[in-house]
Specification:
The chain is mainly beta and 153 residues long. The chain has one helix spanning 28-35, and strands at residues 39-44, 49-51, 67-72, 75-84, 98-105, 111-117, 130-138, 145-152.
Length: 153
């Protein structure tokens, strides 16, 4: 990407398929939360542990019936990252490079979540840097949705 996110309406180029909950609605609560600018992650009431990505069964105690979602602080630290130079979708042809970060969420049991890292795509990225979630609304889409990106603090 040659321009900054402030010069465009959206961080990534238009033309990508809109993300949406799968028909089984496993991630629906996450996507509903993003529309409200909240970060919601799965939580097991039995073993009191967070998990990500959403599943029908708890990773730790294997409970089926006690998984809920909890709103967590939308802050984390960069655990790992990658600068993407090769487009994985035709719409990204003019959108490279861009940064993808694996963010560890200390307020959610240190689960890790992937997202785009905003700012200059050729910036220096430091493991352990603090990041805040940035919610990017796509109100002109049907259905409407909101993406979660990350910005260094």
């Amino acid at each position: 990407m040659t321009s900054t996110s402030t010069e465009r309406k959206y961080y990534l180029p238009e033309g990508l398929p809109a993300p949406a909950p799968h028909i089984d609605d496993l991630g629906k609560e996450f996507w509903d939360g993003t529309r409200e600018h909240e970060l919601r992650v799965q939580f097991c009431e039995s073993c009191q542990e967070f998990q990500w990505g959403p599943e029908w069964i708890c990773y730790r105690c294997h409970s089926f019936d006690t998984l809920t979602y909890r709103t967590v602080e939308p802050r984390g630290t960069i655990f790992s990252w990658e600068r993407v130079w090769y487009p994985t979708h035709p719409a990204l042809q003019m959108g490279v490079p861009y940064l993808v970060a694996l963010v560890e969420l200390p307020h959610a049991g240190n689960i890790r979540m992937v997202g785009n890292l905003l700012g200059d795509p050729e910036q220096e990225v430091v493991i352990g840097s603090a990041v805040d979630a940035v919610f990017e609304d796509h109100d002109d889409s049907d259905p409407q949705y909101t993406l979660v990106h990350w910005r260094t603090v």
